[in-house]
Design brief:
single chain; Amidase signature (AS) enzymes; two-stranded antiparallel sheet; Amidase; Amidase family protein; AS_sf; Amidase_CS
Length: 482
């Protein structure tokens, strides 16, 4: 069992770790040892790691140590020596790329994702790769290939999905930074369930690989335990890339430090608890309003608002879109080997195939959905709303038979347990997910900070103000018991 000192070192923030490296108070090898100890201690329960790159990581940590000592190994880079957990969906050439599927159990990647390339070029050390549901097609993390990933705060619950392994790894102390991707909330849901920070950049801000780089619902982005750390990783992975025609020029660089930099003074914040007719768990609603109160106390003008969206409207737009993209891929996999794929992947294909709308009709609905949000955001600097409608899904449940119940309301579509998909539909709005507190079951809850189109700086400013006014688990020294 790792020592208390080692366990605490594993929860060092990325920005603090870099400062400690520069001051020669902590070495990259010491930090890597601490996070590896956390993996060994917690992952038998959490099950977030699907591949360990331990030998390569320690070699890179020793090289980083030499750089900090000025021994001629090259200049210190922005992420020099930091251990990073990478979502397995992000391919690394020459390594397995299984996507949580038995169909891909023997697949080896031939290309490396630009996010991974940028991290390693910046000195980051990828030492673990993290679990996802099959084809990243679920809001929980379990598969026939990798088994069940559990929430470090309460293993009876899911860490969310599809970047559930990355969220759980951050919560359990495996790394200060992690990569994620988000096509319906797959960064933000795990951020909420694990009490960490996740950023869904606006479409095109962070490059991706084709064909999904061309899907406006898709967003690769950073995850971390603090707002400043999330901004640190975002600055490394963002920017135009020759392989992605939609990647934006010029590169946006976020300010290096957010905590307390400008605060919430004078900001106009919309607070929306239900996003229309979504049922919301009382603990989630109470913590969301507490965030609003914290912002008000910090000098913001906070107004509770209502949207006219309905779950049915959002679901119809989603399924029309997914039918043409991810649903089609799920259908091909199901047809190829129906006994090998997970029941939830088969269900996902069936739901999307049953869409009564054409892709073009879905686009018309998307325009209708954004029109109301755009009108609202024109009057406010940002909107705050819950990330999940409930603290977390139960671990091991795939909702192929069970109906999801939220605050006494039974839903036919389990994804109604999340308030994230509307902002994939409204894909150009940046969304920062930050913790809001804890529910009675010990699982964290979270809020989304939704900005105007491409106004990334504002959501980070608001997130930093929330973090300062309402310190959460990691900034307040609280840790999972694992």
């Amino acid at each position: 069992m790792p020592s208390d000192v080692s366990a605490e070192l594993a929860y060092l923030s990325a920005t603090d770790a870099l400062a400690a490296f520069r001051a020669r108070e902590v070495s990259p090898v010491e930090l890597l040892t601490a996070v590896v100890d956390r993996v060994d201690a917690a992952d038998p329960v959490v099950n977030a790691v699907v591949e360990s790159l331990r030998d390569e990581a320690f070699a890179a940590a020793r090289e980083a140590e030499r750089r900090y000592l000025g021994k001629g190994a090259g200049e210190v880079r922005p992420l020099e020596g930091l251990p990073i957990a990478a979502k397995e969906e992000h391919p690394i050439a020459g390594r397995p790329h299984q996507m949580g599927s038995l169909l891909y159990a023997d697949n080896i990647a031939t290309e490396t994702h630009p996010v991974i390339e940028r991290i390693t070029e910046a000195g980051g050390i990828i030492h673990v790769r993290t679990s996802t549901p099959e084809f990243c097609a679920a809001a929980f993390t379990q598969s026939k290939l990798w088994g069940l990933t559990r929430n470090p705060w309460n293993p009876e619950f899911s860490p969310g999905g599809s970047s559930g392994g990355s969220g759980a790894a951050l919560a359990a102390g495996y790394a200060p930074l992690a990569t994620g991707s988000d096509i319906g909330g797959s960064i933000r849901m795990p951020a909420s369930c694990n009490g960490v920070v996740g950023f869904k950049p606006p479409f095109g801000r962070v490059p991706a690989m084709p064909p999904y780089s061309l899907d406006q619902y898709c967003h690769d982005g950073p995850m971390a335990r603090t707002v400043a750390d999330c901004a640190l990783l975002e600055n490394v992975i963002a920017g135009p890339w020759k392989g992605d025609v939609v990647s934006l020029r010029p590169k946006l660089v976020l300010p290096e430090a957010y905590a307390g930099a400008r605060g919430a003074e004078g900001l106009r914040i919309a607070l929306c608890v239900n996003l229309g007719d979504y049922p919301v768990d009382p603990d989630v609603a109470a913590n969301t309003r507490a965030v609003g109160e914290a912002l008000r106390a910090a000098g913001a003008v906070v107004e509770e608002v209502a949207l006219g969206w309905t779950r049915d409207l959002i679901e119809r737009a989603l399924l029309a879109h997914f039918a043409a993209v991810m649903g089609a891929e799920a259908g091909e996999a199901t047809a190829a080997a129906p006994d090998l794929v997970t029941p939830y992947l088969r269900m996902f294909h069936e739901q999307t195939a049953a869409s009564e709308l054409s892709f073009a009709e879905g686009l018309a609905l998307e325009g209708e959905i954004y029109a109301e949000l755009g009108e609202l955001l024109d009057r406010f600097d940002a909107m705050v709303c819950p990330t999940m409608a409930l603290p977390a899904f139960p671990a091991g449940e795939d909702f192929t038979e069970t109906k999801l119940v939220v605050d006494g309301v039974e839903t036919d579509f389990y994804l109604h347990g999340s308030l994230t998909p509307p902002f994939n539909i409204c894909s150009r709005v940046p969304v920062l997910a930050v913790p809001s507190g804890f529910a009675a079951n010990g699982v964290p809850t979270g809020v989304q900070i939704v900005g105007k189109t491409y106004d990334d700086e504002m959501v980070f400013r608001v997130g930093a103000a929330v973090e300062e006014a309402r310190p959460w688990a990691y900034t307040a020294g609280r840790r999972p018991a694992l």
